[in-house]
Design a protein that fits this description.
8 strands, three-stranded antiparallel beta sheet
């Protein structure tokens, strides 16, 4: 080879090595896939969380990995060539934009870099945007978050994003949520999560940053008329309708008297309490500071705390979430869910004993959702086919509809794989199926001077009418149980309707322990 030829012969670029070629393949494949999936996303009609994860999270990661592999291959190739003296490789690349070839390469590199940075920025924003979506929160970790997602979709806050309550705005909230998400990802990957998911969420944003954006405490005032429909367990699925005034009350003197339920949320009042259990159901100590600055402390006389326990205990200031603790993820008890289905027309009261049979099959224990769905269908179909054959022939479609609706109720509020139901997540609104209001208003919280937190029913609601007891005058009615409880009439509701443990009758019922309550306590 002549000296002139050797001088004009240029060494191949550092890119020409097998490692960089492999990185280039990864980059091209990732880029092509991103473009293809992006086109699919903008042309499809239905949301798919997995498509967004792949397009804006996983594939960009592979794209960056490919670029890093290319750079690593070039560095390795450079090291290899420097080991051979005849290569005469310079310590650093020579850049001369007066050289036509180098100028073209430089412009091409700038153009490609611009496109790559633009796509990275766009992809990063889309990844951020998608990670804030309800689909990402509820359907990515499908098995774990299924109970919360399904209950959320059937609640009154279904059009609010999860992050609006659980994350908040600003970089600090975002960073904190993603760090917490990394821990959750680890729990998911190594099956370290609890079943059911523990509540309440102790790092939940305060209510004044979430609830009060829509629900303005200063405008709470007056009573709220509400009608309760309850269907009996008898053959006729008899309807009992109760109309009540719920004393919502006011949270601001400017909107009316500060009284009723929302007295607790009057901004001038400060209620602090200590709960001794993780679910905040046992509250042995309460401190109330009124708008004049007067402080009153109440102790549960059945389980008083010592001064040391009060000092060491976690003192929480009461806000909306302490009563409305299931605002977006409510799991309804079967009794309530079936009553709602009757009232909305999804279940037909003309099917004999439908309330009783539906509740019975919903309350059974199943290992999986599929097992429950099959058992519900078999149980209800067998009951009507065997006991009401003529009706079954005439109203077979109604029976099928009842089966379908009962299955829907189970799939909405029961999740055996995650061991989640209304029993594991008590709702503090009311006091029928869990302590709720009676956590404090139980007649047992007393001051050192003997002042009680009242448990008078009329504080919170006034019964206007009861279809089981026609009013003879205009006086408000007292709350009355649908069956005669005898000596148990002074017990709290959750004594029998307790959520977190099976109900045990105060008497030994022997062989009739499986009977429905109304079989011994007929309605008046």
């Amino acid at each position: 080879m002549s000296e002139e030829t050797a001088a004009t012969t240029k060494a191949p670029t550092l890119f020409r090595n097998y490692v960089s070629f492999a990185g280039a393949v990864v980059v091209v494949a990732s880029l092509s896939s991103i473009v293809l999936l992006f086109l699919i996303e903008i042309t499809k009609s239905a949301e798919n969380p997995y498509l967004g994860i792949v397009t804006y999270v996983i594939l960009p990661g592979f794209l960056i990995l490919g670029v890093l592999i290319i750079v690593a291959g070039m560095l390795l190739e450079r090291r290899r060539r420097r080991r051979w003296p005849e290569s005469e490789l310079a310590a650093y690349p020579r850049i001369d934009l007066n050289d036509t070839r180098q100028r073209r390469v430089a412009f091409a590199l700038v153009g490609v870099s611009f496109v790559f940075i633009f796509m990275s920025a766009f992809g990063s924003y889309r990844a951020y945007e998608f990670s804030e979506s309800v689909e990402f929160c509820g359907r990515t970790c499908h098995a774990v978050m299924k109970p919360e997602y399904v209950a959320f979709q059937n609640g009154s806050h279904a059009r609010i994003r999860c992050v609006d309550c659980h994350v908040g705005s600003g970089p600090e909230s975002y960073a904190r949520s993603k760090l917490n998400g990394a821990r959750q990802l680890y729990s998911l990957a190594f099956n370290k999560y609890s079943k059911p998911i523990n509540t309440p969420v102790h790092n939940m944003r305060p209510a004044n940053e979430t609830c009060e954006h829509c629900h303005w405490p200063a405008k709470f005032y007056g009573p709220l008329l509400k009608t309760f429909n309850h269907y009996a367990y008898d053959e006729q699925n008899s309807l009992r309708q109760t109309r009540m005034l719920i004393n919502v009350g006011g949270g601001s003197p400017g909107s009316g008297p500060v009284a009723g339920i929302h007295w607790h949320m009057n901004l001038a009042n400060e209620i602090t309490y200590i709960a001794t259990d993780v679910h905040r159901q046992v509250i042995p100590w309460i401190r109330v500071k009124d708008q004049q600055g007067k402080v009153t402390e109440y102790f549960d006389r059945r389980r008083p705390l010592t001064n040391a326990q009060i000092v060491a205990g976690e003192q929480r200031r009461m806000d909306c979430i302490d009563c409305h603790n299931r605002p977006a993820h409510a799991y309804l008890p079967p009794d309530v869910a079936v009553d709602q289905s009757f009232a909305s027309g999804r279940l037909d009261p003309s099917l004999p004993y439908l309330k009783r049979q539906a509740i019975e099959v919903l309350n059974k224990t199943y290992a999986t959702e599929d097992e429950a769905v099959k058992a519900i269908a078999l149980s209800l179909d067998t009951f009507y086919r065997s006991n009401y054959s003529a009706l079954y022939q005439q109203k077979g479609e109604l029976v099928k509809g009842a089966i379908s609706e009962t299955q829907r109720i189970y799939q909405t509020y029961f999740f055996p794989e995650m061991k989640t139901s209304w029993e594991t997540h008590p709702n503090n609104i009311g006091h029928l199926y869990s302590d709720g209001c009676f956590r404090c208003h139980d007649g047992e919280h007393v001051t050192n001077t003997g002042k009680l937190i009242s448990n008078d029913c009329s504080i919170c609601h006034t019964v206007l009418s009861d279809s089981a007891r026609p009013a003879t005058n205009l006086k408000p009615l007292m709350v009355q149980h649908p069956v005669d409880l005898g000596g148990l009439a002074d017990r709290k509701c959750e004594t029998c309707h307790k959520a977190n443990q099976p109900f045990r009758h105060p008497l030994n019922l022997g062989d009739i322990s499986s009977f429905q309550c109304v079989e011994c306590h007929p309605r008046k």
